[in-house]
Amino acid sequence: MLDSRNWFKPLPEHQRRHLSASQRDGIHIHHNGRSLINFASNDYLGLSNHPAICNAASRAASKSLGSGGSRLVSGDAPSLHQLETSLARWKGFEACLIVGSGMLANMGLLQALANRHTHLFCDRLNHASLVDGARLSGAINHRYGHLDIDQLELQLHKHTGARRIIVSDGVFSMDGDCADTVALLKLAEAHNTLLLIDDAHGTGSVGKEGRGLTALHALAGHPRLIEVGTFGKAFGSYGAFILATTEMIAALRQQLRTMIYSTALPETLIAASQAALNQIQNGEPIRQLHARLAYFKAAIARLGFMPSTTAIQPLLIGSDQQALALASQLADHGFFVPAIRPPTVPDGTARLRFTLSAAHSEQQIDQLLTSLRTLL
Ligand SMILES: Cc1ncc(COP(=O)(O)O)c(C=O)c1O
Q: Among the residues of the chain, which ranges form H helices?
């Protein structure tokens, strides 16, 4: 008889995750039969239910749904190329390649760029997609302490070789803090390596124009830099893209197995992401997000939040059980903020990961913080 216990170790209750929450609109979520105000979404600009974006997606869907093939066979819509050109221009890179998701982008990129002769230098808290891509590549993997530039430099001095890549999240998904991309690129230049930055969370939310961390520090387009962005977060849509030099993107079109052997994104999502880019470029959603973030930050002094200037604002709790208890009490007050536990974060650092959105009102933020003060 098929018994999952023969294959997977049963998890204790405090480590189990539940598939029980679904976003209902830009701000509310269904959770265990209740409608809660969502302070956990990556939909930072509230674009997932924006009328212009939903209409663009519906118009495209009324013509066809699935793309019917991978990009190199029959799924390569002209709209994909138009969006790639718009994204490259907006982000300040020479070229862009759209792929199915951020997970596929990172796994495919590291598999394509690295082999068993390559040294990868990875921040300890990199996203799972970068961790798995590093494993899949078979490369020699060196992990440096989170944001520890000195340790990275020591590792670069020690492990020399022709093929070396520094790999880091831009905005870290569970901590909300940011890689020092300026220092990373300096090291990449000094040690003749590539730099891969996954700015899934900074794209659309960091900087006045939402162009992300590398644009904020005027690094975008640097020939040593390869960047990943996603449509599943601030764009409110689904999919991902890779930015690099024209030459690198041309090579990736031939080498990226997660693009070559996977069905291309449907036109409905391409249309949605193009409409989302138009909204982002008009500036209003980002101004709104930054205003909400400033309001939240001004009110949380002394509540014990981790230092973060981005839309991800974690409250470190420590034990899994206490984090789960606080999440459940907040749900009783009408707010959805799930507990993030190991193995997603290191042992003993369970937390509530609050995220801010342009769609929140100041009143909703006030209500959340009143509840939090009571419960803490
Ligand atoms: C830093 C980072 N990179 C990549 C991904 C994966 O992106 P996607 O959801 O498009 O697969 C995520 C998603 O959570 C992420 O946080």
A: 51-61, 78-91, 102-113, 128-137, 149-158, 181-190, 213-216, 246-255, 257-260, 267-282, 284-299, 320-332, 362-375
Rg (CA), the chain: 21
Task: Read off φ and ψ for residue 45, nearest 5 degrees.
Answer: -105, 5
**Residues with beta carbon inside 6 Å of ligand 1?**
101-103, 106, 127, 129, 169, 173, 198, 200-201, 230, 232, 240
Region 141-158 average pLDDT: 98
Supply the DSSP string of 29-95, one letter for each residue: EEETTEEEEES--S-TTS-TT-HHHHHHHHHHHTT--S--SBTTTT---HHHHHHHHHHHHHHT-SE
Residue nearest to atom 7 of ligand 1 (CA): 102
Q: For ligand 1, atom 8, which residue shows the shortest CA distance?
A: 102
Q: Which domains, from first to last, does the chain contain?
A: 13-49+283-375 (3.90.1150.10), 67-265 (3.40.640.10)
Kindly tell me if the per-residue pLDDT of 94 is higher than 90. Answer: yes
pTM of the predicted protein model: 0.95
CA gap 31, 24 in Å, rounded: 10
Q: Is the pLDDT confidence value at 18 over 90?
A: no
Q: Whose C-alpha lies nearest to ligand 1, atom 9?
A: 102
Residue type, 373: R
Atom index in ligand 1 nearest the CA of residue 169 equals 1
